[in-house]
Design goal:
about 250 residues, alpha+beta, Arc Repressor Mutant, subunit A, 2 domains, seven-stranded antiparallel beta sheet, 9 strands, elongated
């Protein structure tokens, strides 16, 4: 993928802005750290009638096994035992002298929502030190660009900060909402591992608003595939005071 082609396309969009003209273009890269994060998705769904009847029966009655409950509910023992085994596996029911609900089972029965922790899965997250947060996007698509400009000086030497489990869970939960046909949630992280650092090209444009005689930046982030207000703010803070002299006094 040619970076110059994307640069021309974006410039064409900006030139359609009323009263604004591009007075300077520049490209730079920002470093992004990739992490492999492993976690257990949690399946949540409304509790079905049979499961609810079984939990109520274990809470209010005395049953030593699934066959005894099947006789009372007039349900095939095979169905009861399959569901009972799953309840034991997920920690809703335990066997003492009789079958009883665990605190987890009581909670789910009260809420009417069944939760099951699924097998561990892993996803890749991209953390940007200059943003101090995780960015959405596919790093593999970024790596297809034909050129990678110099690194933005303000991003050089920055380390991973402010990356805790809460931020990982928030990003993974957002990814679950986008991808899953069945609703799943992320409640905890099993492990996280640093993989590699990649350069992400960003395309910056300095524009002159001729109506107000002000200068401002637009920066396109090729990882998120969106205009990036955080990087725009960096340029405004670090460089904007010099722009008029640098670009309009020529």
């Amino acid at each position: 993928m040619e970076l110059s082609t994307l640069q021309r396309q974006l410039a064409g969009q900006l030139k359609q802005m009323d009263g604004a003209e591009i007075i300077h273009e520049m490209n730079f890269c920002i470093p992004v750290q990739s992490f492999k994060v492993t976690y257990n998705p949690v399946l949540k769904k409304p509790m079905d009638i049979l499961m609810k009847m079984m939990l109520i029966s274990f809470q209010t009655g005395v049953f030593k096994d699934g066959e005894a409950l099947a006789d009372v509910l007039l349900v095939e023992p095979l169905f009861i035992n399959d569901l009972l085994n799953n309840m034991k596996k997920t920690g809703l029911v335990e066997k003492e002298e009789t079958l009883v609900l665990t605190p987890k089972g009581k909670k789910q029965l009260t809420e009417g929502v069944y939760e099951e922790e699924l097998d561990p899965v892993s996803d890749i997250l991209q953390y940007s030190p200059i943003h101090r947060k995780i960015l959405s996007g596919d790093i593999e698509e970024v790596l297809e660009f034909d050129e990678f400009p110099e690194e933005l000086s303000y991003a050089a030497g920055l380390e991973v900060e402010n990356l805790g489990e809460e931020q990982m869970i928030e990003q993974l939960s957002h990814m679950q909402e986008e991808d899953d046909e069945v609703k799943t949630y992320v409640t905890s992280i099993l492990s996280s591992e640093e993989i590699q650092i990649n350069d992400v090209p960003c395309l910056a444009y300095i524009l002159h608003d001729t109506k107000t005689d002000t200068l401002f930046a637009r920066v396109y982030n090729t990882l998120t595939q969106e205009w990036d207000p955080d990087l725009e703010e960096v340029l405004h803070t670090k460089e904007r005071p010099d722009w008029k002299e640098r670009y309009l006094s020529k």
